[in-house]
Hints:
This protein is mainly beta. Helix content is 12%, strand content 40%. It is built from three helices and 13 strands, in the order βαββαββββαββββββ. The chain has helices at residues 17-25, 47-57, 114-119; strands at 4-11, 28-35, 38-46, 62-66, 72-82, 89-96, 103-112, 123-126, 130-135, 143-147, 156-158, 169-170, 177-182. The strands form three sheets. The protein has a six-stranded mixed barrel. A four-stranded mixed β-sheet has the order 10-7-9-12, with no helix packed on it. Strands 8-13-11 form a three-stranded antiparallel β-sheet. Strand 5 (72-82) and strand 6 form a beta hairpin. It is elongated. The chain starts with a strand and ends in a 31-residue tail after the last strand.
Amino acid sequence: MNESAKLTIAKRAKGSKGAMNRLRREGFLPGSLSRRGADAVSFSVRRDEFRKAFYEYGMSGIYILQLDKKTSYSAMIREIQYVPGSDDFLHVTFQLVSLKEETTADIHVHVKGRDELHHNGYEFIQQLDSLHLRGLPGAFPSVINVDISKMAPGDQVTVAEVELPEGLACLTEPDRMVVSVHHPKVHEEKAEEEPAEAMETPAEPAEAAEGGE
């Protein structure tokens, strides 16, 4: 089972937009915890504490939300809202999970071996950024790695060919393409247009013959 990230949270009342902005100015991130069959829990968490845990455990990690000495929740991130035009967090939504019940998650696909592939003069196209997986919460990895370092033009990897950790099932269609390798496109230079033939200069009129009547 993967390790869990521990976050200390503080319960908060559902406040106005002004109250939410005040929380953010004080270094807190507003959040909520969705619970099946029960009201959501509104809380705040130190923004720097959440950022550190998120960068280590990602969207697929298990987070222990510690409310007080007696109350804690096992949860997974379901949604993160960002400040428009920024990578700063605006709000985070968690989903309460049971470590003994299966759930689903979208796990990022990380392509390994890019440098080796480019060194060989090849290129690749990644068509899927994530896979939709089902399993116990503790079985989800932070990323799914697909190694392309030894692939050649014409090679491809479909969903069915991706190796998954034990205990996980993929719900994405098995015949969908994840990544394919090909030769780099050759950009043919446009042939220089031949200059148009110079227009023939009309012959000068013959001079009149000398002599008179």
